[in-house]
Specification:
3 domains, 6 helices, Uridine Diphospho-n-acetylenolpyruvylglucosamine Reductase, domain 2, Uridine Diphospho-n-acetylenolpyruvylglucosamine Reductase, domain 3, 298 residues, alpha+beta, globular, 24% helix
Length: 298
């Protein structure tokens, strides 16, 4: 009997051999052995405690910064939904949010509550769980700058708390690499006139719409910026802006945004990224490092 036929009882949803393409912004990827959508934190904890510890577990938010390979994913994909999307305003310009909250929702909730400092989330696709895991940021502010604590469950279903955001580095936070599923986060902002916060958000949103291909099948920034350089400039100089590679290309609008033109496979997208990395290295000696998380079997 396969482990898939002997899963712990749950109150949430279990999907077997489910294609992952619809769960990611790039719209590619083979099936997951199992997708689990827990009913609440207790349901998730009980499942993790009872699941065979040899079975791999991977949290997946809205897949805005994830490339799932064509062979799919072994093990269990944890997909947090509405029960993990609550936002609570607390005294002292604090905001507590579930990991499934969209970053943009958090920015809007902060603005409504007159909390400044979190408006940068209006410019980041994805969820708070992913923002914590990769120290997401834009336009000069990162998650570590506003995070007080993050909360999660370890692989055994035990609750854990992280309270050292100063340890975050560029595009590296806390979560999956530590074997933790982030479930919530506590942020600290500053009391600010709601109209002022809203104006900043609108400015960020307008800037993003003008400079990024937000209506395409994309995965956000593909490569981290090497120190002292912009990845988009390196890609552009290597001649890859808008150049097709199978069904994949880098956007004409922003050369660090990988695009599925509609017919791309995950192999096309990853192959394009590796071809660009090789050309940039040959031309400049600079190594580009993936910011998009690539998971699964080729």
């Amino acid at each position: 009997m396969s482990w898939k036929d002997n899963l712990p009882p749950v109150r949430g949803r279990l999907l077997r051999d489910e294609p992952l393409a619809p769960f990611t912004w790039l719209r590619v990827g083979g099936p997951a052995d199992v997708i689990f959508m827990p009913a609440d934190q207790e349901d998730l904890a009980d499942f993790l405690k009872s699941l065979d510890p040899a079975v791999p577990v991977l949290p997946l938010g809205v897949g805005s910064n994830t490339l799932v390979r064509d062979g799919g994913l072994e093990g269990v994909v944890i997909r947090l939904g509405k029960p993990f999307a609550e936002i609570e305003t607390l005294p002292g310009a604090h905001l507590k949010t579930g990991a499934a909250c969209l970053d943009n929702m958090v920015a809007r909730a902060a603005a409504k509550a007159g909390i400044g400092g979190l408006e940068f989330y209006a410019g980041i696709p994805g969820t708070i769980g992913g923002a914590v895991a990769m120290n997401a940021g834009c336009y000069g502010t990162e998650t570590k700058d506003v995070l007080v604590e993050a909360y999660g469950l370890d692989r055994q279903g035990n609750p854990v708390t992280f309270s050292d955001p100063d340890a975050f580095t560029y595009r590296h936070g806390w979560g999956a690499e530590e074997g933790v599923i982030v479930t919530a986060a506590l942020f600290q902002g500053t009391p600010t006139d709601p109209a002022e916060v809203t104006a900043r958000m609108e400015e960020i949103t307008a800037r993003r719409e003008q400079t990024q291909p937000i209506r395409e099948k994309t995965g956000g920034s593909t490569f981290k910026n090497p120190e002292g350089h912009s990845s988009w400039k390196l890609i552009d100089e290597a001649g890859w802006r808008g150049k097709l590679f199978g069904g994949a290309k880098f956007s004409e609008l922003h050369a660090n945004f990988l695009i599925n033109t509609g017919e791309a496979t995950a192999a096309d997208l990853e192959g394009l990224g590796e071809a660009v990395r090789a050309d940039v290295k040959a031309l400049t000696g600079i190594d580009l490092h993936w910011e998009i998380k690539r998971v699964g079997k080729p």
